[in-house]
């Protein structure tokens, strides 16, 4: 992946696990405390930056170095932290990734995709880092850009 992406989502949404999977690292839980650059092309952000509205400015600053915004939605979460039209804040291409698809019901998967569409994600990818599913179309998206 040549484009730099920023992962935005609430705590425990799977942003760090997604980064670990994409960079062929061992999957293990690690709480992200600050913005981290992984393999020079992924920006991992703390969930608190989205969860606390007074910290959202830090996401705007961190996103300045990204080519693509990736909104990360946990499929098993009831509800979302992304307001309608959230992606328009960035003026950059925005995609959505649904995580933890292996733990979700069909209804939860549908809802997660709906939340991401409402937030402004133009394309949505449904993934499971633990099963290794859904990543081919995600990676192809970046090859085509």
From TrEMBL:
<dbReference type="InterPro" id="IPR027417">
    <property type="entry name" value="P-loop_NTPase"/>
</dbReference>
<dbReference type="Pfam" id="PF10662">
    <property type="entry name" value="PduV-EutP"/>
</dbReference>
<keyword id="KW-0547">Nucleotide-binding</keyword>
<dbReference type="InterPro" id="IPR012381">
    <property type="entry name" value="EutP_PduV"/>
</dbReference>
<dbReference type="GO" id="GO:0005524">
    <property type="term" value="F:ATP binding"/>
</dbReference>
<protein>
    <submittedName>
        <fullName>EutP/PduV family microcompartment system protein</fullName>
    </submittedName>
</protein>
<dbReference type="GO" id="GO:0006576">
    <property type="term" value="P:biogenic amine metabolic process"/>
</dbReference>
<comment type="similarity">
    <text>Belongs to the EutP/PduV family.</text>
</comment>
